[in-house]
Description:
By secondary structure, the chain is α/β, with parallel strands linked by helices.
Amino acid sequence: xxxxxxxxxxxxxxxxxxAEVQGKASAFxxxxxxxxxxxxxxxxxxxxxxxxxxxxxxxxxTKGKVSSPQVLRFLFGAAASGMSSxxxxxxxxxxHLFGESRTFKIPLSTPLLLSWxxxxxxxxxxxxxxxSWVGLAYALMIGGLRIFDxxxxxxLRTWLFLSTVLAVICLGIFAIVAWLRVSxxxxxxxxxxxxxxxxxxxxxxxxxxxMLGLSLRSHWTGHENRPSPVLVSHTCxxxxxxxxxxRIFQVAYIRSLLYPVSDNLSIAWILISLMSLAVAxxxxxxxxxxxxxxxxxxxxLVASHANEFYSLRExxxxxxxxxxxxxxERKDRTGKLQYENIIVVSxxxxxxxxxxxxxxxxxxxRELGGSDSRYSRFGGLLTFGSPLNKxxxxxxxxxxxxxxLRTSIMTCLQPLISEPAIRESMPWINFxxxxxxxxxxxxxxxxxDNWPWRVINVHDSQASVPVLAHITYWQNPxxxxxxxxxxxxxxxxxxxxxxxxxxxxxxxxRL
Length: 511
């Protein structure tokens, strides 16, 4: 996610393992294409066992490839799909898993969350336009051009001023509470408080947008002698909002900023113009931040033969597959395959890429040797901050009302959801957090909730800051413990790994 540097994730994994680095990192010549011919790894010692770490680094390939309008279109489309499925398909969708069709229930929270985010994004764009309008109007008045309705501007700047004050209060308290350290037992309480503050900030935007619209409508319909309230007006028959606020704002400087109605307050006009334009730019930065966090998701999840992201996704798949295949084919000096236990650890969009990569390798090796095939060397899959559940619902190939032949064929090409023996030998552990809007408990990849080889979900109960919870899984001691156990899965066995993960999952649910 974001601006990752090469080997940064690899270093974080090594720190989470509390491992001792043995000598220097090594490299070997592989059969991969292009720059993947030289594969680098870090050799560690974890509980007296040698572990080699490899990193599939793909972050630069999506850098700058997705624009803010494309991310907004992605979110609006996801919201429309979610609400449509919930309202017109009995809040269910179907998936083909392990040879049979299963109907999944769509939780109401999913379409509501997507719709809420869409409303917020529309509102901040409208509010940013309002700030720009006010800032431009006062900038022109400094030059003596009063081409906007002064009465309307007075009301618009009042609502925008109140919105800014309340937004600063919400975000200020949010920053202070987020900075405070709390005990593990109170982390969820802190998270709920921060969520409430974030909700208040988000709710403030559509409310401000509505008040701006009502003010515009009031002035538009109240001026009978003019076709538009944008034209110059030195008198106003509309009751302004300003007198109602004079009782609240008694400080001279604040009043001068709220009510610069004479030529003697040109300095206040300059301040209001600069403030409005600065806040407008600040609001327009929000879609840019979303692009940083969601751009790679957009490029990968919505790729198809019909859009510009298809070749990018296929390149990511090809390179990650080549690296994984090179590692699996690595041999020692005697000609034997070097690695008997291969663990895949992935975060965020990396979980989707890992899912695709493992399925491709399993499907290829399945044709080579049946029960003796090399895919049995996968010792486990550890995912965290994963959007896989959301991807299955919003961007899956399945029909929303039925499972057709095309869906069944595509499922057969994904052994992780078509062959129970693979899931039995390869435990799949998923860490997620309620405070992480990207992640979710993975439940759409198992034939039933009581299936013995189901994905074991562990909630990160120590996360306390909404949104930032997406990048704090490394700090959870349960995650570190599971990472160490995964490195010894061949010695401990898949049942022991599942048993311990289930204990951690139950403990996190109680918290």
